[in-house]
Records
---
Amino acid sequence: MSSTPTETIARFEHVGVTYELDHLGIAQPEQWGQLAIYADGDMVGEFEVTFPASAFADTDRPELPDTDVLAELARHQLAVDAGAPDRMTLELTNRRVMAAWCGGHEPDDLGSDVLLVDVPAGRAVIVKGQTVERTETGFRKLDTRSEA
């Protein structure tokens, strides 16, 4: 038996496989928000929850999104690892997932069609239907009208 606390915080199904999510920050606080994806005991991926800067105002360990959001982020990461582009399009149904993916602030009005995201120069606004792609330094908005 390991002397470290359990890190498994969720289980989910994806394409007929059962996956487990381990929160690495439980045993290693400096890894708060980093999650590993396991299938049959083997690590198959990892991702990090991005918190808005304001989440750290009162604590160094902000609350993680619920397990449904974490499972959706893991599914997204598995798709990226399989070759899909690391991008998301904001819809009303994925606001919480996209907020955790890019560090957005989810407004009190869940029917809102905008998401505010911390960026070095302040805040950026992502609007419903807009696609965002992750980059080495953060993210960039894509003009999907010009993509073929």
---
Amino acid sequence: MTAASLFASPFTESRPRVRMTHVELTEELERLRAEIARLRAGEEPLEVGQRMTTGGHLLWLLGESPAEMRVRLAADLFAARQAADSCFASDHGRALRRFRLRTEQLEGRLQHARREAQRMAEVSNGAGRGVALSLSWLLAEHDVTAPVVL
């Protein structure tokens, strides 16, 4: 491997090594500066000890980091994203199962309470009818068959 190949840039054309004129060097310098500006666009420098709070901070950190650190950080970000997606999906399914079980339990209790309200309504004395009316009113407030509004 030659020294020239070590410093070869993917942004330059493959051409024989010749002396460049001042104008060519100036144009090449401007092109490289524009490419660096494009690559660094959106960066927001961080001070030592400052928390990263924006994407610009992350871009700046990646731009200032060695390749090994950038690759490790990208792998960590990818793994964290996968874990978050998995966690959300798992918790979502678990929460749905828990809500369904709770709904079934409440439906059973409500059915029992409806039966009791009906039984009490059939009682001939006024106290039983009063309890039945109160219980019916409470049951109407907690009707699980009504559509859920979020």
---
Amino acid sequence: MAGTGAGGGLPDAIRRVLAVVAHPDDESFGLGGLLALLSDSGVPTAVLCFTHGEASTLHGRPGDLRTVRVAELACAARELGVERVELTGHPDGALDDMPLLLLAAEVTRLIDEQRPTHLLVFDTGASPGTGTINGPPAPRCSPPTGRASPSWGGPCRGTWRNG
């Protein structure tokens, strides 16, 4: 299973990765080590973040929290070697109320644009308030069919489409 991938002893099949997170800082706290390893190994990475993290209680700094968190995400992405970051701007703390097919369509759009070979997501319960993107990891990249299977993970098939 281990191979050269793009380098660094990664599996050969890992050629491009899209990480899907709920809040700015999830890319660092939860996935930062792996994103940095991928980048250092020459694997292009992108991050889709569903919120601006404006409901955080970790503010403690002057300024608009939404703006501060966006700047922090951009800085973290540079440090981790992430090539692209996209924020969708859904209300922080309300992802459970978002239509699952809307979130899936946003992921699908970036899959179509970025053509990742793999998706990187949190496992069940990794981050509070992110029930719609958490759940048992799926063995393949397929559109969720309902709230019972709301996460994506593993290799992406070239024919994956929403709907």
---
Amino acid sequence: MTEVIKVFTPVKRVPTMVGKAPNGQRLPFGPYTLPQIGAAAVLLLFTSVCSVNLPWNPAITFITGVIITVVTVFALGLIPYTGVRLSSRAYWLGRLLVSRKPVSASGMPIDSESARRTLFIEQTVVVLLPDVVQGASDAV
């Protein structure tokens, strides 16, 4: 007799996309991810507040803000979605730009001592060797 076996695997993070307006029309240049929509909303609100409150020409300020918003939304669309939080990626990139020392993915600082105990196997695997105690070989 044949039995059906079901194996459930965890779902990886899938981006939520917004591609249609509430009336059913497609959004121009869409679909958009939620970070793109959030950035567009925040930057357009900031643009409108600045165009009203800054002493410069409001039309020029607003057009400049809209251009910055469009470029930012386009740049956020270029970021590949791998399941890693966008805030973690921004923190990692900011840390690389500010602190130019070598950095590891595990957060461990890389120095001459830790570099001596690591072994590079392939691009995604790094083996950390345990510390060798000098007195342990004498006790055996």
